[in-house]
Amino acid sequence: MALLPIMTVEELNRFLDTDFPQVHTDGKIFTVTNIGPGFATMRLDPNERHIRPGGTVSGPTLFALADVSAYVALIAHIGPVALAVTTSLNINFLRKPYPEPLECTCRILKLGKRLAVLDASIKPVAGDELAAHATATYSIPPR
């Protein structure tokens, strides 16, 4: 049975804007761009604060992109549950991400009553080679 989203791209962006305005502390750098059965895609438009010496997007920025994307993929499918929280996130940095727009596609591997496991792939918007890969587990509060 396919996982079907119950929130739209517009609803998710509005939810982030209103319920999690802190993700926009550095300006609006995170944008939900696509939602589909079992997945979500977000875009990151890094600014100077996200670039480290050597001209690369920092690891903490990529970690944040994976984490926010996993959260968005989850709530797209279960609804706006503000208290769903990350219980673990493991990230592998694969290639130097240049300071350009990046996208993260996050797929739900398992969606249970209390836990969700997700897979996140980060790459340049204008490219195909992965910059990072992450797996995340989220705890879902009881309804």
UniProtKB/TrEMBL annotation:
It comes from the Bacteria. Keywords: Hydrolase. Pfam families: 4HBT. GO terms for molecular function: acyl-CoA hydrolase activity. Residues 54-123 form the Thioesterase domain. SUPFAM superfamilies: Thioesterase/thiol ester dehydrase-isomerase. The keyword Hydrolase applies. The keyword Hydrolase applies. Transmembrane segments: none annotated. This is Thioesterase. It comes from Sinorhizobium fredii (strain NBRC 101917 / NGR234).
